[in-house]
Amino acid sequence: MTVPSTQPDPTHGVPDRLIKHSVRYADHRAVQREHLTPMMRHYADLKDQYPHAIVLYRVGDFYETFFQDALIVSRELEIVLTSKDGGKEVGRVPLSGIPHHALDRYSATLVERGYAIAVCDQVEDPAEAQGLVRREITRVITPGTILEEGMLNAKRNNFLAAIVIAGNHWGLSYADISTGEFLTTQATGLDQLCSELMRLQPAEVLIPTNAPDLGGLLRPGERSPHVPESLPTQFCYTLRSQAPFNQHEARQRLLERFKVRSLEGLGCEHLPLAVRAAGGLLEYLETTSERSVIDTTKSKTPELTQVPLQPICTYTISEYLTIDPQTRRNLEITQTVRDGVFHGSLLWALDRSETSMGSRALRRWLLQPLLNIDDIEARHDTIQELVRNGILREDLKAMLNQIYDLERLAGRAGSGTANPRDLVNLAESLSKLPELARLVAQAKSPYLKALQHVPPILEQLGKHLQAHLVDRPPLGLKEGGLIRENVVPQLDEMRQQAVDDEKWLAELEKKERDRTGIQTLKVGYNKAFGYFISISRAKADQCPEGYERKQTLTNEERFVTPELKVREGRVMNARREIGELEYEFFAGLRSQVGEQAEVIRKVAHAVAAADALAGLAELAVYQNFCRPQMSVGREIAIVEGRHPVVEQSIPSGFFVPNSAELGSPAPDLIVLTGPNASGKSCYLRQIGLIQLMAQIGSFVPAESAQLGICDRIFTRVGAVDDLATGQSTFMVEMNETANILNHATERSLVLLDEIGRGTATFDGLSIAWAVAEHLATEIRARTIFATHYHELNELASILPNVANYQVTVREMPEQIIFLHKVQPGGADRSYGIEAGRLAGLPSSVIDRARQVMTQIEKHSKIAIGLRKGKAKPSERAKEPAQQLDIFTEL
Ligand SMILES: Nc1ncnc2c1ncn2[C@@H]1O[C@H](COP(=O)(O)OP(=O)(O)OP(=O)(O)O)[C@@H](O)[C@H]1O
Hints:
Layout: H1 38-49, E1 53-59, E2 62-66, H2 67-77, E3 82-85, E4 92-99, H3 103-112, E5 116-122, E6 135-141, E7 160-166, E8 169-176, E9 181-188, H4 190-200, E10 204-208, E11 217-218, E12 237-240, H5 247-257, H6 272-288, E13 313-314, E14 322-323, H7 325-330, H8 346-350, H9 356-367, H10 373-388, H11 390-400, H12 406-414, H13 420-439, H14 446-449, H15 456-468, H16 489-516, E15 522-526, E16 530-536, E17 548-552, E18 556-560, H17 562-595, H18 597-623, E19 629-631, E20 636-641, H19 646-649, E21 658-662, E22 669-673, H20 680-696, E23 704-708, E24 712-716, H21 729-743, E25 749-753, H22 761-779, E26 782-786, H23 795-798, E27 802-811, E28 816-824, H24 832-838, H25 843-859, H26 865-869, H27 873-878
Parallel strand pairs: 1-5, 7-10, 9-13, 10-12, 14-24, 19-23, 22-26, 22-27, 24-25, 25-26
Antiparallel strand pairs: 1-2, 2-4, 3-4, 5-6, 7-8, 8-9, 11-12, 15-16, 16-18, 17-18, 20-21, 20-23, 27-28
Helix pairs in contact: 5-6, 9-18, 10-18, 11-13, 11-18, 12-13, 12-17, 12-18, 13-15, 16-17, 24-25
Residues 646, 650, 654-656, 658, 674, 676-682, 820 line the site of adenosine-5'-triphosphate (ATP).
């Protein structure tokens, strides 16, 4: 053991107001182990075993942390840093403790901040312990392996991911252990990997390395030479050894786990990187979560419990509409750009699910829209049926409202962490399934038909649980009161015996008073002596034969009788035995549920999808959405479309609907001009959102919409400095534009807002022009190009597949009225100076701006050689360079 000679300030980073005692030892390794008290020594040993986790050590009603962990806990949770005796020669060591009932809350904060936690519980009754109470690590929680209800966000998945990178190829596997989803994929291009990670927002990413510090957890924002620089830094990375990620070991592990001979049926036999990532992930789960379920009511060491995972599902990125991270951000799919909050996002506007499962499904769909027209229409059909049949929709929603989170309940049962109330809730939900099936018996659409069949085993299981468990069991497992009467004869017998004995004890006082004639005689109970008969000292000598003196107090004598001791022993034993037997029965019920976790989750999946769709149907009715007509063509024809979020955020009837036509035979590229704040960005986004909503299978906010399937949606909206990577606004913009030009196809939808704004006007305009031209002629992507450079309107007269649209305003003497109406034609001015005037710029500045503007307009002309022959781009390239010189010198 190394003992640093000088200690750094151990309280570094902990605010003074939290420091109650001055402490030494910021590191448990700095103390000679043999000098520590037995408890501290145990803690230090555990710390050696779990060097990367904060060890929360149960002492009485608290979870205590010592040494370095105490400092972290104090700093992160704003908890007082105090101290505890570490041993005679050690003195006081840092201590920070949290109340046991607040474990989930505090753990959630620590885990959210990227710390792993090892929970050490007392595994024997302190009253029975001889010496130090036996304690064991009962659960290791890392950000990606949370199962506790109180620590999980009900409405989103909590993914653990694992990646394997080989050159430009990569494998990515991810699982949500609370819901059992387990997927894997393989692809090429690290930018695609980053994009997948950004979509998933995993709570923790495992990465195989040669790092000496294996198991180390990099918290968000931390860097390590072992994590490739190209990967996003906002996630927690856990450095793992290479071994479980090697092909043979990983494959073997998957074969054993899913009890198959080949991975063919799971779809990944020929995807080595996908297999390696999945195998590495599984090994991590086995070493962290699967050893952790311990019955803390008993002293025996538990059986190994497996986290129930569904059979791994192999997917390919190209199955889904590609939305890169910028687009996801710009379209504000799950959070707003400005504040990064859920309120105001698309998901916020669309989610009317009754269950958390439905909300999670909708979130997944929004982040992974579909490409397959049949799959999309299956969802549209379901919404249509629910829109048309309002009674069915309302009844369905009312029933879904009574169904608990079956996915997570099944997970907790399977991993042995479900409490009695979980099972009662699960039983109640299972009992609703046949009713649900009856409700949708006549339904025709695919997602409702999926609810028509309830596996008989689940019906039986629900009944079995309800027959055994009381309606309102306590949360605790030890106290009994879980199992109904008349279902377990042995239990009934024991209870009857206990009742008889308790009755005898209750009646004893009266009986003995009558027998002895001592009216002040009392029967009492305390923890140290158990039951006793108390007689005042004055009357003590009148006690009958058979009374044994047990204790003498100032005013009373306490006695016991042999029969009292027998009855007491029986009551105590009976209570303990009843508690144990009930627990055994409960654990049996829980594992029966765990065995059916996969079936439950399959049904839960169907319920979740139906719930998300019923929510979308309700939204369609109340917000007046229409069913989009999907095609494999390129057309986008939206009549009177609306922005689904903005229209819900402003008073009803104030939103001005706008139409859009893009793709053959309509133009491919629309140059959209209009004054500041007239609604360009809103229009642009609304088209992206309508397309995206259609492809998740939702109805859309429009009078009608005909939409060809898009392979990708790209956006370039607004200018944001990427301070984290030190890139300027302009460079960010150019990078994003380059990404679009390099990846867009004629099936893509490209939404560009003010390209070229971040540099000098001429450069900006030139770039904007060239980008628009490239998109229209080379790529032919369906594009909306919002710009303040109205010079770009010239493009429409050169290129047949370009059209000009403008957002109109009405000019009044003192103000501009925004009509928010998009109409054909290009705006000839931008009203920027008027906007400046309205914003309160001094009138001298406004006047001068007008003068300068007049001068510029007089002297500038767009010298467009391109216009002359409307030549094809390839021919143009051969023409003299001066033709691209679109401005003359002032
Ligand atoms: N169709 C519409 N109906 C009603 N209000 C709208 C509509 N479109 C936009 N708005 C409102 O106008 C505001 C400004 O819209 P938006 O940001 O799209 O303008 P812009 O033309 O892109 O402005 P800038 O050029 O300054 O970026 C929005 O916050 C929205 O509330």
